[in-house]
Amino acid sequence: MTTQTQAARPSAVTADRLRSSAAALRRRASRLKIVLGAVLAGIVVVPILLAGVLPLPDPLEQDLSQRRLPPFTDGHLFGTDQLGRDLLSRILHGGQVSLTIGVLAVLVSGVVGVIAGAAAGYYGRSVDAVVSRLLEAQMSVPLLLLLLLVVALFGPSITVITLVIAFAQWPEPARLTRAMVLVEREKPYVAAARVLGLRRAAVLLRHVVPNIINQVVVVMLLLLAQAVLLESALSFLGAGVERPHPTWGRIISDGQGYITTSWWLVTLTGLVIVLLVVGVNLLGDGLRDRVSRSRAAKGESR
Amino acid sequence: MARYLALRVAQSLLTVFLIVSTVFVLVRLAPGDPAAAIGGPTATTEDLQAIRDELGLVGSVPQQYWHFITGLVQGDLGLSYSFRQPALDVVLERLPYTITLAGAAILLTALIAIPLGIFTARRANSGWDVGANIGTIAGQSMPEFWTGIMLLTLLAVVVPVFPASGFTSWSGLVLPAVTIALLQIALISRLVHREMAGNLAAPYVTVARSRGVAERALTWRYAFANSSIPVVTALGTRFAAMLNGVVVVEVVFAWPGIGSLVVRALETRDYPLIQATVLVTSLLAIGVQLLVDLLYPLFDPRVRVGKAVSR
């Protein structure tokens, strides 16, 4: 009886209003981005991972009688290229090269960036000055030409290209980590840990870094998307992994000459890159929204 | 103001020094003998010695470094092998084309990205907002060389509206500039959106609104005036990254600038030429950024009186 009087009181906040509130919209938007991103990236990544198992022709097998067949002919789903090689097989195997380089580059740049950024933010003074000047210097020059020079000098091996991309990307995690550590080091738990007798390096590694690593890891997905784009741009310009490895950039640069007669070479390869990169970017962006919202909900600064 | 200026100039000089030294170290760390790579299998010992002389690979490392630096100051960046001319001259000849293309692209970016960002920021938390968000993510996910070829095929081959390649008339500038701008618009409009949305939701705007200031004035004189500094900064810093796109797009459209030059230099292993393009484009980007920073007082009176602006 008594509980009923409370329930009968009409509230101005209806379920309808809650659904159309800004917070709900943002939550739906990030969920949409995560689902859409995962699906798009999955469409590309799963076949790439399975490229060795799928019943596909060898990516290097030439058949000059089967040159530039349009898609859906003779069992070539994506058609063939100017040397009669199966395009789908080449794209998937090229994807393995791109993803390998991308993932390795992001791991290297992530580790280097987090270490440099955390040290700069935590120790400040001269460490911060050195790291910050390096970041500024690197971000104020067009790196692509320098990367091309390095590949020209050291040769286009997977290792060199991975390191070159990692070098191009370390400022991103470094800046982010530095900014977050600057906020984090002022918090009471850092002072408490110091009072309890932990050394500064131990506080940084065991308490500060674990608190911020979530957000950095999410940004790594966005870096992976950039790494894939950079790798394809390098190989488009002729600084990709050596032949006979198929790479996305080279398939497109070789196909550019045939664009009027064989549209599929450039178009389909490019669409695969776009699908993958859009997917990874959406996924990363959606996850970043979610992580920063959960931090904000906990009352922490973003 | 003088202090700020001196600090910025010193910073730029430090960056130039770091880049120059990086290039110097890289060339010397490279495996194998660059002279042998350039000279080829038919080179005699005298040839190789001449090439080493030319590359400045003679003497102790500090000596080489001194030689390298003094050469740079005098504008000597070595001889380009494929052109048989000073590398600097070859690069400078191409530079105006690259600057034209980059300038057109950045103008286009500013003209579209700023209104677009403001438009979506004023409709924060609506379908427009989400749509623009996803749209800009898609926009920054497309490789420029691919969008370039696609635009080229559609608008120069299938429907011949624009010239396909090179720089024969001003209309040849349209497609490459649009290709570069597409990516930049996606990036800059996101930034404009974030800044504007933050400022429009700030208490000072609410106060002004409650005092009866018109929405148009709130948008432009209040929120945009405060968003312009980070946006101009971003346009300045993006310039360096945008040059990367310019290099790639030049190759697609056979634009006679530095990008197509570099690809040729790469094929012929013309190290002095690649080195010259690295240094010249770096100087260009550093110069543009310095210029942008020196323009701050026009946008923000706080800089004029010498107070630090937190960025």
Automatic annotation (TrEMBL), chain A:
Belongs to the binding-protein-dependent transport system permease family. This is ABC transporter permease. The keyword Aminoacyl-tRNA synthetase does not apply. Pfam families: BPD_transp_1 (PF00528). The keyword Phosphoprotein does not apply. Residues 95-284 form the ABC transmembrane type-1 domain. It comes from the Bacteria. The lineage of its organism: Bacteria, Bacillati, Actinomycetota, Actinomycetes, Jiangellales. PANTHER family: D,D-DIPEPTIDE TRANSPORT SYSTEM PERMEASE PROTEIN DDPC-RELATED (PTHR43386:SF1), OLIGOPEPTIDE TRANSPORT SYSTEM PERMEASE PROTEIN APPC (PTHR43386). It is a multi-pass membrane protein. GO terms for cellular component: plasma membrane. InterPro entries: BP-dependent_transpt_permease (IPR050366), MetI-like (IPR000515), MetI-like_sf (IPR035906). GO terms for biological process: transmembrane transport. It is found in: Cell membrane. Keywords: Cell membrane, Membrane, Transmembrane, Transmembrane helix, Transport. The chain crosses the membrane at residues 34-54, 97-123, 143-168, 261-283. Gene3D superfamilies: MetI-like.
Automatic annotation (TrEMBL), chain B:
InterPro entries: BPD_transp_1_N, MetI-like, MetI-like_sf. Its main location: membrane. Keywords: Cell membrane, Membrane, Transmembrane, Transmembrane helix, Transport. PROSITE patterns: ABC_TM1. It is found in: Cell membrane. Residues 95-292 form the ABC transmembrane type-1 domain. One of its GO terms (molecular function) is dipeptide transmembrane transporter activity. Belongs to the binding-protein-dependent transport system permease family. This is ABC transporter permease. The lineage of its organism: Bacteria, Bacillati, Actinomycetota, Actinomycetes, Jiangellales.
